[in-house]
Specification:
The structure holds two protein chains of two kinds.
Chain A (H helix, E strand, L loop, with lengths): L6 E4 L3 H11 L3 E4 L5 H6 L7 E4 L9 E3 L3 E5 L4 H5 L2 H6 L1 H7 L5 H6 L2 H7 L5 H8 L3 E6 L2 E6 H4 E3 L2 E2 L6 E8 L7 E6 L9 E6 L2 E5 L6 E2 L1 H8 L4 H5 L16 H22 L1
Parallel strand pairs in A: 1-3, 2-3
Antiparallel strand pairs in A: 4-5, 5-10, 6-7, 6-10, 8-9, 11-12, 12-13, 13-14
Helix pairs in contact in A: 5-8
Chain B lengths: L12 H5 L18 E7 L5 E7 L1 H4 L4 E5 L42 E2 L5 E7 L2 H9 L2 E6 L6 H6 L12 E5 L13 E13 L7 E7 L2 E6 L4 H8 L9 E4 L15 H13 L3 E4 L2 H7 L2 E13 L5 E11 L9 H8 L9 E9 L14 H19 L3 H8 L8 E2 L5 E2 L4 H12 L1 H14 L3 E11 L10 E8 L4 E5 L8 H13 L6 E5 L16 H28 L6 E4 L4 E4 L2 E7 H7 L4 E8 L8 E11 L5 E11 L6 H20 L30 E4 L18 H18 L13 H16 L1
Helix pairs in contact in B: 8-9, 9-17, 13-14, 14-15, 16-17
Classes of the chains: A alpha+beta, B alpha+beta.
The structure holds flavin-adenine dinucleotide.
Flavin-adenine dinucleotide binds next to strand 2, helix 2, helix 7, helix 8 and strand 10 of chain A.
Chain lengths: ~270, ~775
């Protein structure tokens, strides 16, 4: 519960953060809200020598209307995503899901960029952004690149981010029927991470905590595309997934939950949209 | 109007709620200036021989003051000689640690027996250095097979203690006789597990110590400073060379009765090194090394007539006591004592075995042995009612001990003082709208809805002030400035004693509460005291304060009479105004300041040590309404209605507060909390991310019904309310969830009733009924 010692550096701009990252190399980690990184350090599962604090980079905290898509700065807190009027109107799935992360304290510290960069398959927002076909804007020493969500999440806590690269913006296309959404988060307690979660936007379905990365329920989407009923399509929810067993649930129960929750999510999104 | 029985706001709260609390980690006493931090090196394996400890690398780290192992403990008095085990002697009964071959070392000697057991201690200038240096103490372990489950322990293939031939450290024969069940129309038999849970006070364990001029001062987060002092004499000091102070204490729940081995070590380290030291445990230490609770497996058999009269009940207990028998047979002996609960059952057979496992030691947790008894008899009664096809409320009524039977001695020897069990049940059924709830349940069942509801009842009786002969002390002083001071041997750690005791003094003496200071938890000021546990404080400690106030009043009356030049029998105290008068002459008055000022030394004092003839037995009924999502197994608590009767109520706010917290913890055991180990004895729930402590979001607003049946064992009429919540709520919630899915064929689900367990039970019942 006491982290090993580290050196703290604060960046006040994106350029400074990138310079610091280049200077300090592989032993440095970016610190955003700290709500994933600091617990790992306290348990001594992570021991970076340097922390580059992004917390004061206010230029990365925004929710902006860009016409066909909404741009969200990586440092935007979950609370600000949750309460954004723009998102409530255009992408209510994302606004709602951000309000389901942890508890109010966590939502006032944790950032959308931190959640995406950390890429915990049990986290809510990565799967939601996958269902929404978001694009992640990355800046590094060699410039800026954009990676679609479908190519971003590579493995357990592994993403397309290279060491020293900074996630700066999340671009979320406005769905054609914004109200056709549902987010089913199954937990034992309100504060918990999802045992299983399901994000639906129209006929796009993504799963939380059903494998090493957030996953699209492709078999469900394919069934829907070929005209299957919601109930029949939902039966395919666990196909191609790789849920694990832990003290909260067995893999078999997770697969069962995925089927039930996908069905409920599709029913709800259709009744809304 | 008397202040007693009124809703007086807790006087403790403004300070505690505005960050004014001073816990051990906050203390800035001059004696603790520059105190070294203690970090324990703890066993990382559940069961192993220690073949070597190398402290050299740790010693070379910056800020390291000392690294201490058992080899440094040469200045300890020798331990008492081990008592040889006589295999033919009957097993010992008793609450205290067993000693002899089963005894618990302070720092591991040659073996470790649970993950988290202290092996070495590192003293550093600051806490960060301590954590870094502790990682560098290298301990060589030669692993042994771990004893993790009840069955591993009973099988005895691996033994925890050399010089023994069993892992059963104590047993009490249940005198099981199957003929008691002959002639029963309905008999149900099965296993019920009361799982291991964490005590989880918000403040973990914390100790600071300083050694100066031959006196040891220890600040301890404890439920009783005086017992702690006694335990600390283990380091070879007489009690009067030790002062123990309990500053603010952030909860205890039984796990802070006295102090643990770590506290003895911290105190010793102060004396050994001459430097003040402080230890404040982390949450992971708390979840692995603070004593835990429950951990019993019950085999039950219950039988009775077709019309619901229970004839015989058997309870066969295996108590997992963890790696060391801190309380030995005490917990299961309370379970045996309370086995039949509120029922008049002609034949009750109960016994236990205490087994050692490679797990954190078990000790008292809010209720300590009684919740386990209530959880099982209440489950058994529902089980029996379901098998007989009867309404569980009806079966309870048929079998209750009736009002006219009190005082009543149960078949297990518990002398129940007073009770109105049917009255409490009726109040709860009426408040909940029992018939309407059953109608709604029928409707949902018939409609085959996905979300089903269940109604769970639990009636309980519990023993409070289980050690009435130990009693409690109080000293009340009135000073010549008209203020009063109360010194109590009980030890508040969240309950609100300061409010309660000041109310008692104001009621008796008419001195307003804001002029009354209550002091507890300092052995220099209060050398004799017992402490706060077992729901004993108001009935014993409160009565002592009440009686001391009466003695002060009597002495003051004599003093006032002298000043009035009247006879003492003509002197009256106006407790509204706090003024002394002569009967019939309201114009002439004396203040407390004047009366105390005229006494010797400007002080009127009374000391009382109140002991009670017998324990008291509060009781009540709780009803839980649970909704189960039958597709996912998820449980939502919709309502919780209770009548908890603990005699005369001094302050409804304090009374309700105890019920709230207790119900939450009780519901938590039923639904989400469990300490888990893997097959090698590694803890799987050593942080709050994994241990499912309940939060307000999982609980409904509680509907608290009043029931007040005084005891005649103390002048306040008070019994204890501290543990009622955990005793009543666990079985009420347990029964509610099972009731919700009973129509699907589910008979029982073990706690905690996680979604997966509930869902699996439904699937298995469906499979069974398909056959
Ligand atoms: C008690 C608790 C409960 C929680 N419950 C939930 C929950 O229910 N659902 C859920 O989804 N999450 C939950 N979280 C996690 C929370 O959402 C975190 O805030 C989030 O996952 C990480 O965001 P952060 O800003 O705190 O990132 P940090 O912890 O600061 O960083 C996480 C990782 O991302 C990297 N990083 C951060 N920002 C960037 C960036 N811009 N570019 C590149 N790398 C970056 C860091 O270097 C680090 O490796 C919970 C956390 C806690 C403590």
């Amino acid at each position: 519960m006491i982290p090993p010692s580290f050196t703290y550096r604060r960046a006040s701009s994106v350029d400074e953060a990138l310079d610091l990252a280049a200077e300090l190399g592989e032993d440095a980690k970016f610190l955003a809200g700290g709500h994933s990184l600091l617990p790992l350090m306290k348990l001594r599962f992570a021991a970076p020598e340097y922390l580059i604090d992004l917390g004061r980079i206010t230029e990365l905290s925004y929710v902006r209307d860009e016409g066909t898509y909404v741009a969200i700065g990586a440092l935007t807190r979950h609370h600000d995503v949750n309460t954004s009027a723009l998102l409530a109107a255009e992408i209510p799935l994302l606004a709602h899901a951000a309000g389901q992360v942890g508890d109010p304290q966590i939502r006032h510290r944790g950032t959308i960029g931190g959640s995406v960069a950390h890429a915990d398959a049990a986290s809510d927002l990565p799967a939601v952004l996958l269902a929404l076909d978001a694009t992640f804007v990355i800046r590094g020493g060699s410039g800026t690149r954009s990676v679609p969500a479908a190519e971003f999440f590579k493995g357990i806590f592994e993403t397309a981010l290279e060491p020293g690269e900074l996630l700066t913006e999340i671009q979320v296309p406005k769905p054609a029927s914004p109200n056709a959404w549902s987010f089913q988060k199954f937990t034992k307690r309100a504060i918990d991470w999802a045992i299983v979660g399901v994000a639906v936007q129209s006929d796009k379905v993504a799963l939380v905590n059903m494998g090493h990365t957030p996953l699209r329920a492709s078999a469900v989407e394919a069934a829907l595309a070929s005209g299957a009923s919601v109930a029949d399509a939902a039966e395919h929810a666990a196909e191609g997934t790789g849920a694990g067993s832990d003290i909260h649930a067995s893999a078999a129960f997770r697969e069962h939950l995925a089927r039930v929750l996908v069905r409920r999510a599709l029913e709800e999104s259709r009744s809304r949209g | 109007m008397s202040i007693l029985g009124t809703r007086v706001i807790r006087t403790e709260d403004p300070r505690l709620l505005t960050a004014g609390g001073v816990y051990v980690d906050d203390l800035r006493e001059p004696e603790l200036d520059g105190a070294a931090r203690v970090t324990f090196v703890r066993s990382t394996v559940a069961h192993a021989r220690i073949t070597g400890i190398d402290t050299s690398e740790a010693l070379a780290q910056p800020g390291v003051v000392a690294v201490l192992t058992v080899a440094d403990m040469t200045d300890f008095p020798p331990p008492p000689p081990p008592t040889p085990i006589d295999p033919d002697a009957p097993p010992v009964e008793g609450p205290m640690p067993l000693g002899g071959p089963w005894s618990e070392p302070l720092l591991a000697v040659d073996k470790v027996r649970f993950v988290g057991e202290p092996v070495a201690m590192v003293l550093t200038d600051n806490r960060y250095q301590g954590e870094d240096a502790a990682e560098l103490v290298s301990v060589d372990y030669e692993p042994l097979p771990a004893v993790v489950t009840f069955d591993d322990a009973l099988a005895g293939q691996t033994l925890l203690f050399d010089g023994t031939d069993t892992n059963v450290s104590q047993r009490r024969d249940g005198a099981f006789d199957d003929s008691a069940f002959d002639g029963c129309d309905v008999v149900v038999e099965g296993d019920i597990v009361n799982q291991r849970v964490a005590c989880l006070p918000m403040e973990g364990r914390a100790i600071a110590a300083s050694w100066k001029d031959g006196k040891l001062t220890v600040w301890a987060s404890t439920q009783n400073a005086q017992l702690s002092r006694l335990i600390l004499t283990a380091i070879g000091l007489p009690p009067d060379a030790i002062r123990v102070v309990a500053p603010d204490v952030g909860g205890g729940f039984g796990a802070k009765i006295g102090v643990d081995r770590e506290a003895i070590l911290v105190a010793w380290a102060a004396k050994h090194t001459g430097r003040a030291v402080r230890w404040v445990e982390s949450r992971s230490e708390n979840l692995t090394a603070m004593t835990q609770g429950r951990a019993q497996r019950h085999h039950i058999k219950i039988g009775g007539t077709a019309d619901g009269r229970i004839q015989a009940y058997r309870l066969d207990i295996v108590q997992d006591t963890g790696a060391y028998a801190r309380m030995s047979g005490f917990l299961p002996s309370l379970t045996v004592l309370m086995a039949p609960g509120v029922y008049d059952i002609p034949s009750v057979q109960a016994g236990y075995k205490v087994v050692m496992t490679n797990a954190t030691p078990i000790a008292a947790y809010r209720g300590a042995g009684r919740p386990e008894a209530a959880a099982t008899i209440e489950r058994a009664v529902d089980w029996f009612a379901a098998a007989a096809g009867l309404d569980p409320a009806v079966v309870r009524k048929v079998n209750y001990i009736k009002n006219e039977q009190f005082p009543f001695v149960t078949k297990t020897g518990a002398p129940y003082d007073t009770g109105d069990y049917e009255g409490a049940l009726d109040k709860v059924l009426a408040a909940a709208g029992y018939e309407e709830l059953r109608a709604e349940q029928r409707r949902r069942r018939e409609a085959g809805e996905v979300k089903q509801i269940g109604i769970g009842l639990a009636s309980y009786s519990e023993i409070t002030a289980p050690d009435p002969a130990a009693g409690e002390t109080a000293k009340v002083e009135v000073h010549d400035d008209g203020t009063a001071t109360v010194y109590t041997g009980s030890s508040a750690h969240g309950q609100g004693h300061h409010t309660a005791y000041a109310m008692l003094v104001q009621a008796e003496l008419g001195i307003p509460m804001d002029k009354i200071e209550v002091i507890h938890g300092d052995t220099d000021l209060i050398p004799v005291g017992v402490g706060t546990y077992g729901s004993r404080s108001l009935q014993l400690g409160g009565t002592a304060v009440h009686k001391a106030a009466i003695e002060v009043k009597e002495e003051a009356a004599a003093k006032a009479a002298q000043l009035f030049e009247a006879s003492a029998s003509d002197v009256q105290l106006d407790t509204e105004a706090g003024l002394w008068h002569i009967a019939g002459d309201p114009d002439k008055s004396l203040t407390w300041a004047q009366v105390a000022g005229a006494a010797e030394g400007g002080l009127i004092v009374a000391n009382v040590h109140f002991t009670q003839e017998r324990p008291t037995f509060p009781f009540g009924t709780q009803l839980s309404l649970a909704e189960v999502d039958t597709e996912t197994g998820k449980v939502t608590l919709l309502r919780h209605v209770t009548a908890d009767d603990a005699g005369t109520i001094l302050n409804p706010i304090l009374f309700e507060g105890q019920r709230h917290g207790g119900i939450a913890q009780g519901a938590a055991q039923a639904l989400c909390e469990e300490i888990l180990y893997d097959a090698d004895g590694n803890p799987l729930t050593s942080s709050l991310a994994d241990y499912g402590a309940i939060t307000a979001a999982e609980l409904p607003s509680f509907e608290l019904v009043t029931s007040e049946t005084p005891t005649d064992l103390n002048p306040l009429g008070a019994k204890g309310i501290g543990e009622a919540g955990t005793i009543g709520a666990t079985p009420a919630v347990h029964n509610a969830v099972i009731d919700a899915v009973a129509h699907l064929g589910v008979r029982h689900i073990d706690m905690p009733m996680t979604p997966e367990r509930v869902w699996t039970a439904i699937q298995e019942a469906k499979k069974a009924s398909a056959k």
